[in-house]
Amino acid sequence: MANQLQGAVRSLLTPVAKRVLLTWEKLESGISFDLTSSRIRANPYEIYERLRRDDPVHRMRLINAWSLTGYEDAQTILQDHKRFSSGDNKLEYAPYRTMLDLDPPDHTRLRGLVSKAFTPRAVAALGPRVEQIVEELLNDLAGKKRFDLISEFAYPLPVIVIAEMLGIPARDRDRFNVWSNDIALAVEPVLTNAEIARVKRASDEIVAYFEEIIAQRRDRPEDDMLSALLAAEEEGDKLTHDELIGTLMLLLVAGNETTRSLIGNGMLALLKNPAQLQRLRDRPELLDSAIDELLRYDSPVQFIIRVVMEETEFKGRRLRAGQKMMILVGAANRDPAVFTAPNELDIGRREKSHISFGRGIHYCLGSPLALLEARAAFAGLLERFSSIRLLSDPEYRNQIVLRGVEDLWVEVEQ
């Protein structure tokens, strides 16, 4: 999950003030980037293209940050955590820090603890269970000609997986989904007061829930990640209680939101590019490269935020300490200097890799699990249904950092 801007723009920013800031921005650079626009949130790629062409290092006056659209620029920033930090970037509305808003040595310590659950061997061991969950979800769809692929497949798959890894009772999975959806709003740089209230309420509720589960595990440890993290917390110098809570919250949201959107966005892209869908059916050995291309084409995480640590110059721009750098992942993944025909879906693409999982020390820890789940999901869908057809164009959620469709209604033949 991407880092965030501290201090989201509230609804207190009046329409007049917003127009003034956007006009100022346009006068400076010839272009303005309105993150609150529903049109841009539905399709940000047009504005990305204009920014990349006209002002690749762009001052965003609405949120007082710099945006970057180029692939190489994005890599430079993401791999230089000393000048462009994740530290001092804690969510204003989240009660606990996570490893996403930490730099070494704290980041190294926390990542080392959690990474044991995401080693290639550990993830591979989850393969049979993930495939079983996919099969069970598809069996529940037996006989249905039409269904919402998000609510009945893409959502429950990662929720079940991460809940089982953490040792969360099956009866609580629906609560997890509600909490995850609300807490995920906190990564957005522009929030209304109502959305802020949802984040705070969900955070309070999930912290209370985790405290209860932690108390149970202290008395009766089980073979799950929560018990393993609790053992590390008891050693004192490895994990504090607040870090334990923050890590659990991060695993919930990151393990649910991004994988669900990878499956939803990816399936939508294939359905809108039927030649590529048929190509994948004809050549299932392309599945891994197809998933990489789907991540590039419409990334679930569109922005990653870093903080400038010291005054520096970057591409002719004077950056001051404390300013925010917004790396537009979705734009970098469609940089024509790196990708041929970047706005076209090509499941056999062999060019440089996407940056949807980030770069550097904050490269997505859960990426092996996300890829495993996506592989099982797409393989299962294509094997079970001889035909999948899009019934209507879905709407994207009203978010710009975490990009995903609200629903995905399809008609199938089994």
TrEMBL record:
- Pfam families recorded for this chain? p450
UniProt-recorded Gene Ontology molecular function terms = heme binding; iron ion binding; monooxygenase activity; oxidoreductase activity, acting on paired donors, with incorporation or reduction of molecular oxygen
Q: Which InterPro entries match?
A: Cyt_P450 (IPR001128), Cyt_P450_B (IPR002397), Cyt_P450_CS (IPR017972), Cyt_P450_sf (IPR036396)
Q: What protein family is recorded? A: Belongs to the cytochrome P450 family.
Classification via SUPFAM superfamilies = Cytochrome P450 (SSF48264)
Q: Which UniProt keywords apply?
A: Heme, Iron, Metal-binding, Monooxygenase, Oxidoreductase
The identity of this protein, by name, is Cytochrome P450
